[in-house]
Specification:
mainly alpha, Tetracycline Repressor, domain 2, elongated
Length: about 170
């Protein structure tokens, strides 16, 4: 992850990677068919799972989750390689499927949080949870990858007011 974050996936040399890892290139290629597949695997393992918060309210749970997400995205190197992974996945079906699986897995905590909100009556039973997740995460990705605007507590509060105005 460090090497990919420093130089980008496309400029990453397998020789440099093998040297840093203390293994041969053959060892790397036996396990991963491409740089992109290796980086996606490292990406998936580098991000520790989010602790599932339960503050007793939908807004409180989302606030805690999104603040942690913002902190991780601003301080970690993992989101530096995401644009390269997305680009490579557009041309590589196997990588696309792996990235899609990673995304599904990463959405689970928000599915749980929103599902509890439905159970507690804070969201309508027919709420489109996937669209709510897309709106929340999409705003973070847009800021991180395109505008580089802060992902701070003020942003989280403003985003929740827009996405969940009645909660």
């Amino acid at each position: 992850m460090a090497l990919a974050g420093e130089v980008g996936i496309h400029a990453m040399s397998m020789d440099d990677l093998a040297h840093r890892a203390g293994v041969s290139k053959a060892t790397i290629y036996r396990r991963w068919p491409s740089r992109e597949a290796l980086v996606l695997d490292a990406f998936a393992h580098a991000i520790r799972p989010f602790d599932l918060v339960d503050t007793g309210s939908l807004r409180g749970d989302l606030d805690a989750y999104l603040r942690e997400l913002g902190h991780r995205m601003q301080t970690g190197r993992t989101s530096d390689v995401l644009p390269d992974l997305i680009s490579a996945a557009a041309r590589d079906q196997a990588l696309r499927e792996s990235l899609d699986e990673w995304v599904r897995h990463r959405r689970q905590p928000l599915n749980v949080i929103l599902g509890r909100g439905v159970q507690r009556g804070e969201l309508a039973p027919d709420s489109d949870l996937d669209s709510i997740i897309d709106a929340l995460i999409g705003a973070f990705m847009y800021r991180r990858l395109l505008t580089h605007a802060p992902l701070d507590d003020a942003f989280v509060a403003a985003l929740l007011r827009v996405v969940l105005p009645s909660v």
